[in-house]
Design a protein that fits this description.
This protein is of the alpha/beta class. It has two domains: 92 residues, Udp-n-acetylmuramoylalanyl-d-glutamate--2,6- Diaminopimelate Ligase, Chain: A, domain 1 (3-Layer(aba) Sandwich); 212 residues, Hexapeptide repeat proteins (UDP N-Acetylglucosamine Acyltransferase, domain 1), CATH 2.160.10. 17% of the residues lie in helices and 29% in strands. It has four helices and 40 strands. The strands form six sheets. It has a twelve-stranded mixed sheet with strand order 8-11-14-17-20-25-28-31-34-37-39-40. A ten-stranded parallel sheet has the order 9-12-15-18-21-26-29-32-35-38, with no helix packed on it. A hairpin with a 2-residue loop joins strand 22 and strand 23. The longest helix has 26 residues.
Length: 349
């Protein structure tokens, strides 16, 4: 499928600089551009590539002013990164979708299956499960008894949704994700640890994306809840009875202990660890590898382990790098002080 600069600019409400009849049929990174490709420039680190890219069209921010001639047709938009995301979404949605239930899939006779679904070979749908319209279940995905998958959701290979759990509309669960495994609940006894039955469920609301091999545990009682628009990276652990607020994003290897509540629009870097039974406010930013032992108020920006104010952490990091020099200076000051004391004592005598 081919699009002209004029069509793209009209869709994005952008301004064309160059040939409005230039056409593209694919995408490419600006540093790897070639004729017929569409690229974008949003990060200043890549500015040099715009003068040498072979891409036919490049999206740029409205405030960018080229300092040299550019061969490609440029389209000025309010936000080049957001605009390329819109175009990629449009491109992806235009691809033909697989449909039908393969003969090698298993769908229980009591399950409810919507229209235009795709259920791949070796996928499993359990008793009384509900599969919404246009859902895609890829090979070896498992929707267990009484689980519910909302319309237009995608379960990639080896995804498991345990019994009674709920996945909303337009969710994406990447390969190996596990929704609804038992929470880590054990009671110590004289003979060891006795398992506490986990009788709750997991609820994913609409437009949630769960990365590969991420695990969201079912609640002991009630529900572990992931609200609308949350995006979880790969290899994340969400424990029993946690609640994650709408539009929060978490990078890979984050771990959240049980019964922790996280607000809306939060941003967590990679390998963040949260203690259990704490509350994280709205719009909180937590730097990579930070350890959070206590609750945080709305808008907090923290870094470190244990985490503290991000600006103070940066200042402390600078001081830490200077510690060897500071230690040497301290030794010299002590030596000078001892010499002064010695000289002072000699003068007194």
């Amino acid at each position: 499928m081919e699009f002209s600069a004029k069509q793209i600019a009209s869709y994005l409400q952008g301004e064309i600089i160059g040939n409005e009849d230039a056409t593209v049929n694919t995408f490419a990174k600006i540093e790897e551009g070639f004729p017929g490709a569409l690229s974008f420039l949003s990060n200043p680190k890549y500015i040099s590539y715009i003068y040498e890219t072979q891409s036919s069209i490049v999206l740029i921010n409205r405030d960018f002013v080229p300092e040299q001639p550019v061969a490609a047709t440029l389209i000025r938009v309010d936000n080049a990164y957001e605009s390329i995301a819109k175009l990629l979404t449009l491109y992806e949605s235009s691809k033909p979708k697989k449909q039908g239930i393969h003969a090698l899939a298993f769908v229980d006779a009591t399950a409810q299956v919507g229209k235009d679904v795709y259920i791949a070979p070796f996928a499993y749908v359990g008793a009384h499960a509900i599969i919404g319209d246009r859902v895609q279940l890829h090979p070896y995905s498992c929707v267990d008894d009484r689980a519910k998958i909302g319309g237009q959701s995608i379960l990639y290979p080896h995804v498991t949704v345990y019994h009674d759990c709920q996945v909303g509309n337009e969710c994406v669960l990447h390969a190996g994700a596990v929704i609804g495994a038992d929470g880590f609940g054990f009671a110590p006894t004289a003979d060891g640890y006795e398992k506490i039955p986990q009788i709750g469920i997991v609820v994913l609301e609409d437009k949630v994306e769960v990365g590969a091999n991420t695990c969201i545990d079912r609640a002991t009682m009630g529900a572990t809840i992931v609200h609308t628009g949350v995006k979880l990276d790969n290899l994340i652990q969400v424990a029993h009875n946690d609640e994650i607020g709408a539009h929060t994003v978490m990078a890979a290897q984050t771990g959240i202990a049980g019964s922790t509540k996280i607000g809306e629009w939060c941003m967590f870097g990679g390998q963040v660890g949260l203690a259990g039974h704490i509350h994280i406010g709205n719009k909180v930013s937590i730097g990579a590898q930070s350890g959070i032992a206590n609750s945080l108020k709305d808008g907090a920006q923290v870094f470190g382990s244990p985490a503290f104010d991000a600006k103070q952490f940066m200042k402390a990091s600078i001081a830490l790098r200077r510690l060897p020099d500071m230690q040497q200076e301290l030794r010299e000051l002590r030596r000078e002080l001892e010499e002064l004391k010695k000289a002072n004592n000699e003068n007194k005598s």
